[in-house]
Amino acid sequence: MQRREFLKTAAWIVGGSSILGNLSMGQTGSAAPASGKKPNILFILADDLGIDGVSCYGADGLKTPNLDRLAQGGTRFTNAYTAPLCGPSRALMLTGRYAFRTGATNQDATGLMKPSVETMIPTILKPAGYVSCMIGKWGQLPLGAAEFGFDEQLQFKGSGVYWNNEQKRQTYVENGTVKNLRDKEYLPDVMHNYLVDFLTRHRDHPFYAYYSMSHVHGQIAPTPDSAPDSQDLYADNISYMDKLVGKVVSTLEQLKLRENTLIIFVGDNGTATGQAARCTVHGKALSGSKGSMLEGGSLVPLIANWPGKTPAGKVSHDLIDATDFLPTFAGLAGAKLPVKNVLDGHSFLPQLHGQKGEPRKWIFMQLANQWYAREAGWKLNHAGELFDMTNAPFEEPLVPAKTTNPKAIAARKRLQAALDQLNPAGGIRDTGDGTGRHANREENRAIRKDKKK
Ligand SMILES: [Ca+2]
Questions:
Q1: Model confidence over 93-150: pLDDT tens digits?
Q2: pLDDT digits (tens, 9 = 90+) for 19-30
Q3: What is the domain-level CATH number for residue 280?
Q4: Is the pLDDT of residue 165 over 90?
């Protein structure tokens, strides 16, 4: 491909190791089976689900037997990170680029991304022969999924859409047609049925399905399985999410697609603050929750399952960054990476094949005008504060600025070098209100004006 052309622009270093490793992985086509049919990708994205909501991660009082089964048959990653809020997180996952490059630094700023500038995963996979669908929430991303390359879409605005209620009649858009959710119809089931239909229609064709579940974002409503007097609707929702995952796995088995499909299950950010108080892992609460720059904001469950390819029952402590999905999937599909933009993702395809690969040395996370680089034992933020992550995700104490601990001093030096190399302050700056949730008024006006063009 444009290897020479790519080399010109690929002088940067990703996660402490060269992105050229990713490129060669993709070019060798090692992911393609001998039969020649390219592997399918089912990307399941749960909303507001931290590791403290998944029983194979040690969550107390919540049961996810289907996810646990996927982990038993695949690889469970314990150090996967994404941005602590929906919009910025999804921007990382779909573009493979950090927020200071795309502008997606806060929920409203994700609207700054344009298809003419940002290339999302379906656009990369399409020339490699893939058909794609986006099912679920698109509300915090600009335009529609079609404009960013998805062939089919069933999308809704907002978050956590489940039922019609007295306050709101729900709608969703199916391939450009606005549809009304019927009374007693449960949107997660509508989404599931659409996914089953998509998988069935494309069973003989390589596909990338981006399945963005409503669960378990609030408002937490009864599920179709909730007892009328249920005392724990959150647990009901975790169970229903898990059940839907089990059902789609069964569908793949029925379609005889299981052996040739990589399933990725991941959360889009940590557990919502309102639920985090009841969510513990082996009796301990995580440090922070959704929206925070602490561990509980960004540490998410990540399970990869691909029978015969991904080692069964493996637990990987490798660092995974939300930008890593794009190069991983490109490598899997034998697709060319875009050359016009700097990519931040680092392929973990070798790990999916049970190889050591070149694990990241650090991940980078940003929300609004806060950011940090984190390696296995330490974290350094935008303000120069160093944190000892030995007891993460439960504790992350600040290291005194005048520490004489040589390990801390060396870690600061390594992480500062990573931040200096990225130079987030030199990229697109956040102009929101500082929370990561909102633009400031002027920015809101500019976005509205821009959208009218
Ligand atoms: Ca979310």
A1: 999 999 999 999 999 888 889 999 999 999 999 999 999 999 999 988 889 999 999 9
A2: 433 333 333 334
A3: 3.40.720.10
A4: no
229 CA → ligand 1 middle, Å: 28
Please indicate, yes or no, whether residues 105 and 245 belong to a single structural domain of this protein: yes
Exposed e or buried b per residue across 128-144, where buried means at least 16 C-beta atoms within 10 angstroms of its C-beta: bebbbbbbbbbebbbee
Residue ending a domain, among 360, 392, 423, is: 360
In the predicted model, is pLDDT for residue 2 greater than 60? no
Say how many Å lie between the CA of residue 137 and the centre of ligand 1.
10
Q: How far is the CA of 269 from the centre of ligand 1 (A)?
A: 5
Q: Is the bond into 219 cis (omega within 30 degrees of 0)?
A: yes
User: How confident is the model over 278-314, as pLDDT tens digits?
Assistant: 999 999 999 999 999 999 999 999 999 999 999 999 9
Give 217 Cα–ligand 1 centroid separation in angstroms. 7
61 and 164 part of one domain: yes
Q: Could you tell me which of 132, 245, 267 has the C-alpha nearest to residue 198? A: 132
The alpha carbon of 152 and the centre of ligand 1 are apart by a number of angstroms equal to: 22
Tell me the DSSP string of 7-73.
Answer: HHH--SEETTEETHHHHHHHHHTTTS-TT-PPPEEEEEEESS--GGG-GGGTBSS---HHHHHHHHT
Q: Contact 123/113 with Cβ under 8 angstroms?
A: no
Instruction: Give the distance (Å) from ligand 1 centre to CA of residue 149.
Output: 22
Number of structural domains, the chain?
A: 2
- C-alpha dihedral, 102 to 103 to 105 to 110, nearest 10°: -90
pTM above 0.85, yes or no: yes
Determine how many CB atoms are found less than 10 A away from the CB of residue 22. 28
Q: Which domain holds residue 187?
A: 3-360
CA separation for the pair 437, 188 (Å, rounded): 25
Domain boundary among 360, 375, 402: 360
The secondary structure of 242-303, three-state, reads: HHHHHHHHHHHHHCCCHHHEEEEEEECCCCCHHHHCCCCECCECCCCCCCCCCHHHHEEEEE
Give CA 41 to chain center in angstroms.
Answer: 14
Q: Answer yes or no: do 370 and 351 share one domain.
A: no
Helix H or strand E segment including 89: helix 86-95
Q: How far is the CA of 309 from the centre of ligand 1 (A)?
A: 30
In this prediction, residues 184-204 reach a mean pLDDT of: 98
Do 266 and 412 belong together in one domain? no
**CB neighbours of residue 222 within 10 Å:** 16
Tell whether 290 and 434 lie within a shared domain. Answer: no
Does residue 31 carry a pLDDT above 70?
no
